[in-house]
Request: fold
Amino acid sequence: MTLLEIEDLTVRFGATTVLDGIDLTLDAGERLGLIGGSGSGKSLTLLTILGLLPENAVASGSIRFAGRELRGLGDRQLSALRGDRIGMVFQEPLSALNPLMRVGAQIGEPLRLHRGLTRKQAKAAAISLAERVGLPDPEHLVRAYPHQLSGGQRQRVGIAMAIATRPALLLADEPTTALDVTVQAEILDLLGDLVAEEGTALLFVTHDMAVLAKVVSRVIVMGQGRVLESGSLETLLHAPDHPYTRTLLDLARAASFRRTESAVAQ
Reply:
């Protein structure tokens, strides 16, 4: 069943077109990757789905989620979907988290807002979610503030918040970019396990083909606000058609070689 369907999505800032006729579909439980360099439009696509474009942006086209047209909905209606049926994991969790709020309260907030849990119930759920995403000593950690956690721990908090309501769709915007290689691998494994357990559809944004290869089954390559190529992960890895896709693969291989050299040297 098609969960998300985007047709001819175009976004302009004044005379500048930043998304140009984007088409994509995502089935329930499917894992789809959006890949491209800076300015390709991949992250902007996620923000458009969520209805979080700046006021000076003008969007056209269609975005249907579970058969419901999202384009044209008011902020109140979109807010009812965000954090409930659609979860979001951001690139830099420190900027996405409230620095003045304990992490347990932040993990439990979607459940209080969308499920009507009491403060006590939300705290218990937050501890359970913290444990589920692999945070150490959950009962103690939920009382900490974001700045007291490591980068990997903060990203796990962000993931716990995103999956708290068991959303049908999880959007992930380069969630491992700011992490070192070891922690990056742990977070990718965690995301893969969680969406598999819940049957959640995943739309994963990155600039790194090697990262995509660990979490998705189908890929859309973007450049300058357009879809350049799409297909199964296997096809794009072994028989890419567009020169830009081949460049991304070359960069991924070079990065992998450098990591291997570094490991050998140590």
